[in-house]
Amino acid sequence: MKLYTNKKYNTVAFYAIVVIAVNVLLVMAIFKFNSILSILNKALDITMPIIWGLAIAFLINPLMVTTERIYVKLFKKVRRPKLMRAVSVTIASILFLGMVVGIIAVIVPEFVNNFNEIVNNFSDLIEKAQDWMNKILKNYPKVQEMITKKLNEFGSDLTKLQPMLENILNGAVGVVNVVYNFVLGFIVSIYLLISKEKHIAETKKILFANFKKSSAEKILHFGQDANMIFSGFISGKLIDSLIIGIICFIGLTLIGMPYNVLISVIVGVTNIIPFFGPFIGAVPSALLILLVEPKMVIWLLLFILLLQQFDGNILGPKILGNSTGLPAIWVMISLFICGGLFGFVGMALGVPTFALMYKIAKENINNKLKRKKMPTDTQYYIDNADKLTAPHIKKVPLTPEELDDLIIPSCDEVNEAVEGSGIAEVPASDVITGEEPSVETQ
Q1: For residue range 113-151, what is the model confidence (pLDDT) as tens digits?
Q2: pLDDT at 90
Q3: How many Å is the Cα radius of gyration of the chain?
């Protein structure tokens, strides 16, 4: 017996099965949330070296591209592309490892020493802070008592951080995991960079094989935009923050500011966050100096303010340019949303993420306006705001009384009016034949 299939009913059945499967998965996700979360964490731990490899390759890629450009300028004709790629990857990897090792060797020991010194001497710092508060708030005993109580509670809590810090630094498991993931990720990044073009071509083959051509082109366009925005922002922001950290260290050293290494690290790291970064770094730095040298707080704040102005108006635009194209209001919104959801990482990556979404939404809106034959320039909608929001006047047909009162001139009256205006009458034959009439003026 031959079975006849109906494509329409097959499609309906397929969508029904998909809906049922999605509902089953949602129910399982609700009742087995902890199990699913543990599975996801396990999968994340397994794939962590690959994630590290992608991140490291993303950071090394600009160095590799720059090295290849220099290689081409030196040798002009590249007869062995594989040799050029091997040389460029080797040089870029050495530079990357050198920067990582240099930062760790210079900053981490000083950072740890300063932090341990603060914890060990915190009782003295609390006494200095209390004396300073007593002088200022001697006429407000209740406020003075409350602040003293909070300082004592903060001091008792902060002293617990020292063994915690020592456990983190001396914990073999954590250090081994980080080193393990970094080493494997570095090896993965080398393989990714060596055959970068091949991996990109294979990705394109997969897209064109499984999607429509138009959809595949949209996905590739999205990937190009994401690479351009994220690479420009992240690499530029890292360089900018490194320079700001070095300048901050030199300036604080010349001023004679205590804990200059620790403050420079705080300012440099928080500078990765756009807009609010310098102010976020200034708050803990000012509080730290307030406990040690209260008179130096003003100098510190003035220096950070000048440094922020230099970065925002001179250094930042030179390095970053307009890499995101995101308006200021959306920068703040992205920081609030992503920072609230994902903390420091969200604040650092929220701006390029929103910039990518903003660019895609802008292109989509412009395409829809073009299909409607409307202008895409925003200034047009500013200049013509009244016309765009003017109410539509509905045309009402004339009543019989209005038609009776309507005066329609006769043909003779129209001809007399035309002759009186000095414009020659257009012959009807010219209108019918479509020939261009010769107009004579009197």
Answers
A1: 766 766 666 666 666 666 766 666 666 676 667 766 666
A2: 92
A3: 35
